[in-house]
Amino acid sequence: TTLLPFIEQMPKAELHLHIEGSLEPEMVFALACRNGLQLPYPDVASLRQAYDFSNLQEFLDVYYAGMAVLRTRQDFYDLTWAYLQRAQQERIVHVEIFFDPQAHLERGIPLATQIDGIHAALEDGQRQLGISFRLILSFLRHLSEESAFQTLEQAMPYLNRIDGFGLDSSEVGHPPEKFARLFARCRQLGFKICVHAGEEGPPDYVQQAVNLLQVDRIDHGNRALEDEALLVQLAARQIPLTLCPLSNLKLHVVQQLQQHPLLKLLQRGLLVTINSDDPAYFGGYLSANYRALLEHLPISREQLRQLACNSFTASWLPAEDKAVWI
Ligand code: ES4
Ligand code: ZN
């Protein structure tokens, strides 16, 4: 239809992207070769075939195995630069990306190596591609509060290159309240915070994120739809939700895109945005997520425009920079 070029041409922000989730199978093989590592797959095609998940945990197992090829500053630079080049092609003009430092620290990769590589690529992307950015350090919720606090301590010398803190990985059994003291500390240090909640976990986890952690943004938040009072609160306070349609489909959070809660949440007045989450694993970058919505939901041109505008409203850019795009 005629809305396809509209999707491509709209200036967009991406607010929910795990940089390790942009690691394409081709790059897994290239980095394994460069670093002298053996992979348990004979070729790119057989690795891609392993990208078939029935839930979040099955995905996470493959995701953590894949990122083990990231070793050097240059590896982290190349990964981030490849994403930014794709972003520019899709008219993404602002990105707020996550990285998972604990997953790399566990493999003996220093925090400096990770941040030096990722941040240098983001700086080059700002200069050469005109893409503004924020970098979000995301804690792994399946690990302990103590591990998260140790990671925050280790990150102290690098906080001038960090803009906010997030929380991801296995959700059920690891509620936001487990990290209430951690995020209170992050807020006290003056940082923005966002957490994954209500992807597989119950609406109560979204409620905890909002009222206990006092997040600036909810990542996913699909299951907020099950709690009427929570919906009213999210709409009234305009707390953004970063929705990820193709991710939800691949991880069976929704059985079909026709059942995706996006339009219901939009109609209830919530500040929802569209994002790609882990595009190398979920079958598409940001534009593909917009196109999939257009194909499977009765979504209007005005609603597509609203979603792109919301991505800037929900961003952590200062008001004067948002105003350029809205
Ligand atoms: C993630 Cl889709 C998703 N959910 C939770 N944690 C994650 N880490 C990377 N992708
Ligand atoms: Zn995510």
TrEMBL record:
Cofactor: Zn(2+)
GO biological process: adenine catabolic process; hypoxanthine salvage; nucleotide metabolic process
GO cellular component entries: cytosol
The UniProt record lists the keyword DNA-binding: no
Alphabetical list of InterPro entries matching this protein: A_deaminase_dom, ADE, Ado/ade_deaminase, Metal_Hydrolase
Gene3D superfamilies in UniProt: Metal-dependent hydrolases (3.20.20.140)
Entry binding sites for substrate: 278
Catalytic activity: adenine + H2O + H(+) = hypoxanthine + NH4(+)
UniProt domain Adenosine deaminase: residue ranges: 11-326
CDD domains registered for this protein in UniProt: ADA
UniProt site positions, description: Important for catalytic activity: 220
Domain of life: Bacteria
EC number, as in UniProt: 3.5.4.2
MF terms (GO), sorted A to Z: adenine deaminase activity; zinc ion binding
UniProt keyword list: Hydrolase, Metal-binding, Nucleotide metabolism, Zinc
Residues annotated as binding Zn(2+): 16, 18, 196, 277
UniProt cofactor note: Binds 1 zinc ion per subunit.
Positions of the catalytic residues: 199
Main function: Catalyzes the hydrolytic deamination of adenine to hypoxanthine. Plays an important role in the purine salvage pathway and in nitrogen catabolism.
Entries under NCBIfam families matching the protein: aden_deam (TIGR01430), PRK09358.1-6 (NF006850)
UniProt family annotation: Belongs to the metallo-dependent hydrolases superfamily. Adenosine and AMP deaminases family. Adenine deaminase type 2 subfamily.
Protein name in the entry: Adenine deaminase
Species for this entry: Desulfuromonas thiophila
